[in-house]
Amino acid sequence: MDKLNKLKYYRWSLGDRYDGWRVRKVDPLFSVVPFILPKRVDSEVFFEVKIPIDTVEDFIRKHKEDIPNLSLMHVVMASLVRLISQRPYINRFIVWNKIFARNHVSFSIAIKRSMTDEGEETVVKPYFLPTDTLQDIVRKTKLELENNQQVGQENSSDSISKIMGYLPDILLRSVIFFIKLLDKIGIMPKLFFEASPFHTSLFLTNLGSIGIESIYHHLYEFGTCSMFASMGKKTKKNVVNNDGTIKSVRTITLKFVLDERICDGFYYASTMRMLEKILNNPSVLLLPPEQVIVDDGVGKKRIDI
Description:
The model has no long low-confidence stretch (mean pLDDT 88). The strands form two sheets. Strands 2, 5, 6, 7, 8, 9, 10 and 11 form an eight-stranded mixed sheet that branches. The protein starts with 19 loop residues before the first strand and ends in a 25-residue tail after the last helix. It has a single domain, classed as Chloramphenicol acetyltransferase-like domain (Chloramphenicol Acetyltransferase, 2-Layer Sandwich), CATH 3.30.559. It has helices at 28-36, 54-62, 72-86, 134-146, 156-165, 169-184, 190-195, 265-280, and strands at residues 20-22, 44-52, 92-95, 98-102, 105-112, 121-124, 127-128, 202-206, 227-231, 235-240, 246-259. It is of the alpha+beta class.
């Protein structure tokens, strides 16, 4: 759990969780909404962003040698980490009708250990810092994949799922109920937290890697994930230039399912515009952000910035 302790923006106080600080300084409406809409499935909103990728692909070709293994997915991931560093409200989550500011950045990524119908599937959960550059994202993701991608290999999530799968139904129901209860009150064992792909800043799936378009995927009720992002395949579309001529551009579609209870629609819309700007100028990802914006809704004095 040392990874969580790297973001020490605020001291822990009563009401906080080990994975987040309680958000108290919000509009009264946002304090009430989680009681009116207690479930994530009641609170899902949908965004679609079409990104021209000609500039991104040129950027990737330019940096293939100095950033080995660089791919379009790495650029998207780095853009999302940068987005969280500048728009911290999207890294909030709701548990038991309370809003929390996550004290870490992590992505859950579904991977196939072999590209067949019968191939094993698992989820990796790399941790990042808001100050991470594109190089950091590539390195950390590569390390996580290397530790989990071999056929027959098991990570903590696989091991716990396997053990629980052997339990009789009646006992499994009791265990899951107890784990959910502990999570609600913020004392779920950290072993389960680290193994859980559902306790994360963002769940990401790259459907473009198997040649299909992005989808809107539901948010999970268990855990703390407030964002699900889906990458689609590369496609071509015609656009009209200012002089009336038509040109063909390559694009990808990113589809997001978001929890509307953590911030308002204007904040989300501004965030998506910022994502487009970052992806249209990926060179900004080569350097750390000039400033990391810290969630001011916690209502405490910052201790390290």
